[in-house]
Amino acid sequence: MRFALQINEGPYTHQASDTAYQFAKAALARGHEIFRVFFYHDGVNNGTRYTVPPQDDRNLQKLWSDLAEQHNVDLVVCIAAAQRRGILDANEAKRQGKDGDNIAPGFRISGLGQLIEAGIQADRLIVFGD
Amino acid sequence: MSTLHTVNKSPYERNALKSCLDHVSSGDTVLLIEDGVLAARKGGAFVSALRDAGCLVCALGPDLSARGVAADVAEGIHVIDYGGFVDLAAAAKRVCAWL
């Protein structure tokens, strides 16, 4: 089965990103596909590579990036939510005249259409958030 | 046409569980996750409402354990793991998150 996930909450806030990650891992272990993970609202904060959590804590950004690499999961950050919160890729940084970008490996910035498409293409869309 | 309802807020803090229970149909499943698992505690104020909901009620085991209430789950509530969450989501026609 093809799942799509939506995450509305930042890392280390409550638990949405952790729950979604554990769900994604369990789904992949059962042979399902994760079509896309759409990071919306504060959820976009999962996608900055500048997070440096303590070494004995989980690194949610890295967990997502590794999952994307290992299982070819499409991690999409909402552009409007990202601009408000300072999440930029190289193109956006240039377009907005900023001095650097911070998007994490495996994440890409795109629009709300990607969420709509995920809802259409996936068998189930599951929302995690606040 | 069954629905899996996820509730991730404590019923003692928000009314997500109450809203959910006001909308469930027979054949649906309610899954308590994150702080939502606190509704599953034996002797809690929401146990009878869950029993009267007329649908399958599950709670996520790792979230019960994280809150120290895994040994304290009311009768009739099924404890599942993340794999069970995936199975419920696949078995239902849709998943509705009561945030």
Structure explained in plain terms:
The complex is a heterodimer of chains A (130) and B (99). Chain A has 130 residues and is α/β, with parallel strands linked by helices. Chain A has one domain: DsrEFH-like (Hypothetical Protein Ychn, Chain: A, 3-Layer(aba) Sandwich). Chain A contains 5 helices and 5 strands. Chain A has helices at residues 16-29, 60-71, 79-85, 90-96, 113-121, and strands spanning 2-7, 33-39, 74-78, 107-110, 124-128. Chain A has a 5-stranded parallel β-sheet with strand order 4-3-2-1-5, sandwiched between helices. In chain A, helix 1 packs parallel to helix 2. Chain A is globular, with a radius of gyration of 14 Å. The two termini of chain A are 26 Å apart. In chain A, 44% of the residues are buried. The mean pLDDT of chain A is 98. By secondary structure, chain B is of the alpha/beta class. Chain B has a single domain (3-98), classed as Hypothetical Protein Ychn, Chain: A, CATH 3.40.1260. Chain B has 4 helices and 5 strands; from the N terminus they run βαβαβαβαβ. A 5-stranded parallel β-sheet of chain B has the order 4-3-2-1-5. The relative contact order of chain B is 0.26. Classes of the chains: A alpha/beta (130), B alpha/beta (99). Chain A binds chain B through residues 1, 3, 8, 14-16, 19, 22-23, 25-27, 29-30, 32, 123-130, and chain B through 6, 8, 33-35, 62-63, 81-83, 85-87, 89-90, 92, 94-95, 97, 99. Chain B: GO terms for molecular function: transferase activity. Chain B: InterPro entries: DsrEFH-like (IPR027396), Sulphur_relay_TusB/DsrH (IPR007215). Chain B: This is Sulfurtransferase complex subunit TusB. Chain B: Keywords: Transferase. Chain B: One of its GO terms (cellular component) is sulfurtransferase complex.
Describe the SSE topology:
The complex is a heterodimer of chains A (130) and B (99).
Chain A: E1 2-7, H1 16-29, E2 33-39, H2 60-71, E3 74-78, H3 79-85, H4 90-96, E4 107-110, H5 113-121, E5 124-128
Parallel strand pairs in A: 1-2, 1-5, 2-3, 3-4
Chain B: E1 3-7, H1 16-21, E2 29-32, H2 47-52, E3 56-60, H3 61-66, E4 78-80, H4 82-91, E5 94-98
Parallel strand pairs in B: 1-2, 1-5, 2-3, 3-4
Keywords (chain B): Transferase
Organism (chain B): Rhodoblastus acidophilus
Protein name (chain B): Sulfurtransferase complex subunit TusB
